[in-house]
Description:
The structure holds two protein chains of two kinds. Chain A is mainly alpha-helical.
Amino acid sequence: MTQQPDPVMVREVAQLCVRARHDPECLYGRLLRENVRDVLECSFPSFCERIEPADLAQMVDRFVAEHPAIRPQFHQVATEFVEFAQARLSLTNSLLCVLEYEWALLAAEIDPARITPPSPGDRFGVAINPVARLVVLPFDATGGDWDRPTRRAHAIYRNAAHEVLTQVLSQQDCHLIELIKAAASITPTALAAQAAASWSPDDVAQWVATNLEFGLLCQVAPE
Amino acid sequence: MRPLGETSLGIGLRPELADALCNGPVAAPLDFLELAPENWMAMGGRKRDQLDRIADRYPLVAHGLSLSIGDTEPLDIDFVSDLRRFLDDYAIDVFSDHLCLARDATGYLYDLLPSPRRAANIDYLAARIGQVQAIIGRRLILENISYYHRYDDQMAEGEFIAEVAHRSGCGLLLDINNAYVNGRNHGEDPLAFMRNLPSDAFAYYHIAGHLVCDDGLILDTHGTPVADEVVRLGQAVWAQHGPRPLLLERDNFVPTLDALVDEATTVHRAIKMGSCHDATA
């Protein structure tokens, strides 16, 4: 048994694949592009809405022709495209942020981490939801107009009910999140002590309770 | 759960059907569901939850898309190992993929392209099949694809697949619609193709709908009901190779679960009855 392909096989396979990648008019060229386009329109609807159809077709063309996709799972075509866009497409910053935001929604939806709902009791530590992605966007993703420039921090995460949520973060939110991230996990009492210069213990307790309910925080065993 | 038998009936597990399969009553005519591991592995959240619940209700078989057994690159061992873990996690015994390529020297293509059918390639393919079987700890089952490109002076498809199965020991999944589509697109006789295949290698059959384009080309879209001609071909398959589990594929324009189960039941009954008529004629 040989582990090496026959040179003729190598040549024939390469010829077919090169044609499919570089000739959008041949049947396999069309099929490859349709598959990618379907994934993009399904995964990144707002990104696709902001692009002229001809420009989107050109991006798909370049992706098929140039991108060395390494992920075999079909749902990862979206991830492959984001990597390609970051490295090879000259998108405006706002358009790239729309793409990355929609990817973050998708990633939060399918992240393998298990999210458990908070349970009653007062002896627990808190950590940031393991699927949460904390990003600064040049628009308010929770508002209606993504084309109105602003600069807002957001948390994107999936809660225990499998809902994907986007939460705009205030500076105070970011401060407490940084304290929790620095500790990996922390009890509400210890968090209140660290934030005492700017937060009352009651406010910290309320903030923890609210964000446990939303799902931005999750409970962990106390240290 | 019922074990798969020769007259078992299944449909593909599509995300569009997952809620109904999780929450509705168990669909009595369905003996099994087939999933594409690439669409379900390494998933969390709602999809993982749905799959866990569906696996408690229906036997599962797995039908892969990205193995790319017929390409000329080294096998993606990490992916094959991940497949093994996924199959083990869900106690899936039956794993199939396609006798084709889905990757080139650049990377994954996310479609199924034909591998050249040459005698000189058979040992190479058999060695790769053996390598995969050793990793997944199961017999690999390979399906005939629908192809839209023909390499010059190839072996006949049936003869080639039969020889790959013989030398590798792999099982076969006969896609009846693909045989029909290839026959029409390339002016070949699907019955002659199927006559060359070894009955004892068949694990199960696929059947699906296709799209006839304006220029006469037929595309294997899995987006329409099964055509009458394909059902008749299924009857001939059943009469020649015997009964096997039958799976209806539907990946586009997916109807409700009830409608799909009705179609699967109707097609299954027509094939069984038609094959009896053929056999007694």
